[in-house]
Write a structure and sequence with these properties.
Layout: H1 2-19, H2 23-27, E1 48-49, E2 62-69, E3 83-85, E4 88-93, E5 97-102, E6 108-113, E7 132-134, E8 137-141, E9 146-151, E10 157-162, E11 177-179, E12 182-185, E13 197-202, E14 208-213, E15 219-222, E16 225-229, E17 253-256, E18 261-265, E19 286-291, E20 297-302, E21 318-322, E22 325-331, E23 336-341, E24 347-352, E25 360-363, E26 370-372, H3 381-384, E27 394-396, E28 410-412, E29 417-423, E30 425-431, E31 445-451, E32 458-463, E33 470-476, E34 484-487, E35 490-494, E36 499-504, E37 510-515, E38 525-529, E39 532-539, H4 544-548, H5 551-555, E40 564-570
Parallel strand pairs: 1-34
Antiparallel strand pairs: 2-40, 3-4, 4-5, 5-6, 7-8, 8-9, 9-10, 11-12, 12-13, 13-14, 14-15, 15-16, 17-18, 18-19, 19-20, 21-22, 22-23, 23-24, 25-26, 27-30, 28-29, 29-32, 30-31, 32-33, 34-35, 35-36, 36-37, 38-39, 39-40
């Protein structure tokens, strides 16, 4: 009897231990496709799965097995990537909600609905892009700039920490990144004169370990002590403009175990009108590589110095192997695709991935700097207009929503290609006088987004990072705003028109599509359970396009909102 009881206790302990997400499991996530533990299907962010249970031979039999609605009136944009572990799916939703579901049936196990205060100031819809797992916790950020850790089994709050003051314009929309027991987060709010930064906390307790500001001149901290000023105070920011410099880190980061570095992009400097902050404005519109142990910046690459178009630089930096070297790639909002040495940030290649770029002619591969087209930069309204209220309007392409925005691209080691959701649009933009006021929008610009072509705005493009050549493209009438997944020899992505699509990764031939009932602005995932491969995507139209899209927003105003998770498998 005692031996039987002991055996049962040992089995129970083993079962519980297997349910806990460890550092090793997170590091190995890209190579263990039976679950999804991280945003990006691996901390490197490649969004590639080796699973081939769904393939070109049977994808025509791919069909939904369950759909789950987020319910209520709180719809708007749904940009979340689900996570799957131990038979459960964890998925965030608009208005800072998190659901735990039975991954095989879609049955709701529990829901956490964050109590949001009045006066939150999200720039680009009430979205959330996903959660992180560690131990028995599921961790996600909220629109009032808090970080919340919940028990995976019960949904009960284990710890809650404030990222910053939502009344000053801070918010949080990204999926956190967990590295070696630390949860690494950024912040949102670049349009409100905030100061961007990266924080690392103990994932078990929420205790702040280090913080690194991303605007030059601000002090970093480690273990509560000063840890060096970011950059050189006053070097690239005139006067006191650094105090409201923006450079928020609103899309989150990636991590490469081979280099030991975490990579995170920074947003636009504030305000938008560049004449008031003459200089490069480090470290805005940049990719930063940070030492995860100390938070110190190991290297940086600034894609748009003295950004005057709101091009940001937040887009994901994906690491991969090329010609025997560990490198990283980024498709920037400014329309250029960059390839860099992942260890030291040396620029290896840069080329356009959209058809029209007017703000620069090219990127100088020796200096890494863009060759600007001076006449296509919005200027000083006080020097251009008799009453000083509106500067000269210029046409710029891409528009400020970017050649690629929040929607993550994917990389296939099998084909050596990146699969990039792109958009072809431009904008009329002009500067206006602006002064900083806490909690108020800090733009100083006016704009109108315009499509460039009659037959499409969006296009999924397969791009060779060595040559810059587009192997194939699939055009889309509306802008693409959802991410990409490569599974075996298939590429999956969604469209605002509501379709989840699949194409052959080598040829681009579309081999399957399914109508989800609302626009897809989120990235798909795949995993296995009980020997079967599943595919899931969140559906729900929204995000920045209907809020900021000008003429483009009018073109897609027929699209319906929604909020649901769809899960598919191959039917026999």
């Amino acid at each position: 009897m005692k031996r039987t009881l002991l055996n049962l206790m040992m089995l129970l302990a083993a079962s519980q231990a297997g349910a806990v997400v460890t550092d090793k499991m997170i590091h190995d996530d890209a190579n263990t496709p039976d679950d999804v533990l991280t945003w990006g299907l691996g901390t490197q962010g490649q969004r590639f799965s080796t699973l081939t249970g769904i393939n070109e031979g049977n994808v025509n039999r791919l069909a939904p097995v369950w759909a789950m609605s987020f319910g209520g009136e709180k719809q708007r944009g749904q940009e979340s990537q689900p996570l799957v572990h131990n038979g459960k799916m964890f998925v965030t939703a608009s208005y800072s909600r998190l659901f735990a579901l039975d991954a095989k049936t879609g049955k709701k196990l529990w829901k956490y609905e964050h109590r949001l205060p009045e006066g939150i100031m999200p720039c680009c819809d009430v979205v959330n892009r996903g959660a992180a797992l560690y131990g028995n916790l599921v961790i996600f950020g909220t629109l009032d700039a808090q970080l919340v850790a919940l028990n995976q089994d019960t949904g009960k709050v284990v710890w809650r920490e404030k990222i910053d003051d939502y009344q000053a314009g801070y918010s949080y929309t990204a999926a956190p990144l967990v590295v070696d027991g630390m949860v690494i987060t950024g912040n949102s709010g670049g349009e409100f004169g905030v100061v961007g930064r990266v924080d690392a906390r103990d994932a078990k307790t929420g205790k702040l370990l280090w913080t690194r500001p991303t605007v030059e001149g601000h002090m970093g901290y480690k273990d509560g002590k000063e840890n060096g000023i970011t950059g050189t105070p006053g070097a690239t920011w005139p006067g006191e403009t650094w105090k409201t410099g923006g450079a928020s880190t609103w899309l989150g980061g990636s991590y490469d175990p081979q280099t030991g570095l975490t990579y995170i992009g920074t947003s636009n400097p504030g305000p938008w009108n560049s004449h008031v902050r003459k200089g490069d404005n480090l470290y805005s519109a940049s990719t930063l590589a940070l030492d995860v142990k100390t938070g110190k910046i190991v290297w940086h690459y600034q894609s748009t110095p003295n950004d005057g178009w709101d091009f940001d630089g937040v887009n994901e930096f994906i690491t991969f192997d090329m010609d025997g070297k560990r490198v990283g790639a980024k498709a920037d909002r400014n329309g250029f695709f960059y390839v860099m040495d992942a260890a030291n940030g040396k620029l290896l290649n840069a080329f356009p991935f959209v058809k029209k770029i007017t703000w620069a002619t090219d990127i100088d591969l020796k200096t890494g700097r863009p060759n600007f087209v001076a006449e296509n930069r919005p200027g000083d309204p006080t020097a251009q207009d008799a009453d000083g209220k509106k500067g000269k309007s210029v046409f710029a392409a891409p528009g400020f929503l970017g050649g690629k925005n929040q929607m993550p691209m994917a990389y296939s080691p099998k084909t050596g290609l990146f699969y990039v959701p792109t958009n072809e649009w431009g904008m009329e933009i002009w500067n206006e006088p602006i002064t900083y006021k806490k909690g108020a929008a800090y733009l100083g610009a006016g704009f109108t987004i315009k499509p460039l072509f009659d037959d499409h705005i969006g296009a999924l493009r397969a791009i060779d990072p060595k040559t810059g050549k587009v192997a194939w493209e699939v055009k889309n009438e509306a802008p693409l705003w959802g991410g990409v997944l490569v599974a075996g020899d298939l590429v999956f992505w969604g469209t605002p028109e509501g379709y989840l699509k699949a194409a052959d990764a080598k040829s681009g031939k579309v081999v399957w599509q399914f109508q989800t009932g609302s626009g897809v602005v989120a990235p798909p995932i795949t995993w296995t359970q009980d020997g079967e491969q599943f595919l899931s995507v969140v559906s729900g139209w929204g995000g920045a396009v209907p809020l900021w899209g000008g003429e483009v927003a009018k073109k897609v105003n027929f699209l319906e909102q929604g909020g649901s998770v769809w899960t598919f498998k191959v039917m026999q």
